[in-house]
Amino acid sequence: MKVPIKTKVNGKLYEQEVEARSTLLDILRDELKIKSVHRGCEDGECGACTVLLNGKPVCSCLVLAAQVDGAEITTVEGLLKGDELHPLMLAFIENHAVQCGYCTPGVIMTAYYLLNNLADFTDEDLRRGIEGNLCRCTGYIHIIKAIKAAKKCKDSGNWW
Amino acid sequence: MEERERRLVSGKGFYVDDIELPNMAHCIFVGSPYAHARIKSVDVSRALRLNGVLAIITGKEVAKLMDPLPATSNYEAIGWHWRTPKVYPLAVDKVRFQGEPVAAIIAEHPYIALDAADLIDIEYELLPPVSDVNEAMQPGSPLVYEEWEDNMQVHLEFNFGDIDAAFKEADRILRVSWHEGRVSGFPIEARGCVASYDRITGMLNMWSSTQAPFLGRQYISSALRLPTNKVRIVVADVGGAFGNKLNWWKDTVVGLGSIVTGRPVKWVESKRELFLTGSHNRDVTWEGEVAVKNDGSILGVKAKFVKDLGVEGTNRGSAAMGIIPACCSVPNAYRLFKGLKIEACGVVTNKSPYCAYRGYGKDKGIKFMERIMQIVSRELNIEPEQIRLGNFIQPHQFPYKQISGYVYDSGDYPAVLKKALKLGKVDLWREKQRQARKQGKYIGVGVAFMVEPAGVAAPHCIYGGLTQARVRITSDGLVEVENDQTEIGQGSTITRTKVVANILGAKIDDIEVKRDSSDMPGSGVYSSRGAVYPTGALIRAARELRVRMIKFAGHFLNEEPAHIDITDGVFHSTKDPTKRMSLKELADCAYFRPGPRGLPHDMQVKHEILLDVSASWFSPNTAQNPTSTYATYCSGADIAVVEVDVETGAVSILKYAHVHDAGTLLDKDVVEGQIFGGIVQGIGEALSEELVYTRSGELLNNSYTDYVMPTAQDSPDIVMGHIETPSPFTELGQKGIGEAPVITSKAAIINAIEDALSPFNIRVPESPATRERIRRWILESQEG
Ligand code: FES
Ligand code: FES
Question: Which of A54, A124, B210, B343 has the most other CB atoms within 10 Å of its CB?
């Protein structure tokens, strides 16, 4: 069964007919070819598929495509300014928070949400905030460091 | 620099799942729900009628179209008790573990393949399963392989030194037993590959998430009866590996799927499938005795070592072989050993195959020894660090031949441990521990030390120490680099770039590390060998290329090569500053204007006309000392301070310190990233991770929901220190360290828990130390 949906993904409008059983993850990856959204567990456990749905982080593997009619979706591609990397992305690179990179786009989306929504935070808040994103490579230490560095960028106005 | 990272943060990754080829089909595996059963019939006719199903491959087909999976190691020929089963990637007549693939479906879409899976009719006749290793060793146990008379795949005895003398000289003999639960790496990206077979040329091209494309090519071509030069594997971005991507048994079926259908075929494993059929590790039991003097000197260890290999440990991966480093690593950093005797059993059961996971085998011996140290410390009432300091090999003793035959290259173990004690503020925490006890709180300080053998070259297996590097200057003066140091997220792209830029004197941004592929002969990355073997080859190639570049530049600048230097991609004469030329200018001269005709006669006749050098490397340590299967031996010490809530069994980490000596550090960030990740994996193993099988061989936890890996909340703050004692056996003094942190962190946490629970007189018998287990140990101790 096909369901018609309209979405705005990274600022672009899409009208699609989606399979009723397709997930948001499926349509982003397979139809819109947004490959940053990674298939990790498809169980809502790893966060590799995290995107912002109407501004809030969700596991796109747990959302049916048919549910997102009218929604706005952002992925890491949406944080780029042309070919320019977002300061948060640069902070990840500078702080060696990218190892295999499989968790990275998901972690970045969660971190982007946290940075935009928490005026201030402790390390503990951060750890709690990214708890839903599993990373097997970094032990999270460099990720926390990167997000804290990005906070400085944000506070100094180097942000979008 | 960091081009790879720039790609990955911005969604330009090239993981297997991102690959889309024209006309590509999809493969899924259909697994057995039972752990042990005879396959009476497989009927695929209903499934084949489903629209969009292209082919279904079953065990019958693979037995016809393929050779059995090749053994990755085999020591039968040298007289060892070493059995290799005849197995195929799809079960032929019986299934031997839950999830064992029985059929592979190739379809237009993965969802169609999933629908088709429901339409395959398989009739099984259940057989009694054996999932408990002790039962598997009993006479009369069900046989995993009926052609063997028992379930002992590998049975070895290691006997070093004089064990009787050690035990005769001892003041005390202490019993030790220790079990490690079954775990694995379970990277966030599971296994996967895309295979594309060209029926006209007979060429099978593959893109794979693998650690070792050259070995993969060997394995796949052998199973598929293809010449090796008709198989090529390109490594996609790898979403974590940790040893789990050092096997290709399922990839062979994907290749076959492409051969059968004539279509490119993609297989991306689901997480459930990775848990059920992926390579497991640990699951070892040690029972033994240690001979000690009253002053804490460790004189010898006698033990029985049992490893639960699951369905087998030689053909779907390489597990049985890990028994050898497990036993040879037991003496660890300690010099007073007079004897070591171990009976080692590699036993097959109806569980998933066993293969590498960070630590591979050596981790097991080291953790056993570090548990022994803890027990000796408690029994003799000597602080754990004092026991170690008293037994350490001393800095002046290197190179040091350990009783098991390994030749340790260099180190300063007392300095490493003392630095860790300081960073971990051990004295302060012991004081806090005393205070806390008065308030009914249980704090423990755990110490662990390790010497990690890294960079293997073993005979009679696929891990023989092959490596190659190629470095060349392109016609516009840029540098292209390749070796078998597969990028799996450990940071080998950064390391390779820096190493080559430093040696050549080229600009870091001018270095391009080529995508890894099976074109480069070399065993890939495992055994912490990246910094040792492939880097060794890379350094040798880069050094030779530099000599050639300088010779070329000397010729074109009309200057003695001895007076030419290169910095930041510019050659200059140290005598005459006006004589300068960039690498780009040199490349243009060398390639085209004037090109080879403009080179001196002697270079022409020696055919030295290209700025392109390949080199290999073999460990001088292993070459000189055949018993030293490993090239380098880094060291490390971990201090963990934990608090155990005795009411709930919950463990919290209050302080964590780690110091290591990886020789000359190639890149500090890369090394630290590896170490942080490894420490947290070890913490997961110590506290929560375990694959639990029922007696009927059913895996109870096959998802991240039930197999509990550390989240950001479980990762502690870690203070880290480095000490650099260069290895005399490597090109820059560097040592492998990739696997080290997962070893000591687990041991330190377990030792800390035991220390915290010392008022209850508990010996932690096994890992993970889950809440439930800790509560049980406390209750049992209270019941007397
Ligand atoms: S893929 Fe969605 S949470 Fe893992
Ligand atoms: S960087 Fe590999 S999973 Fe996070």
Answer: B210
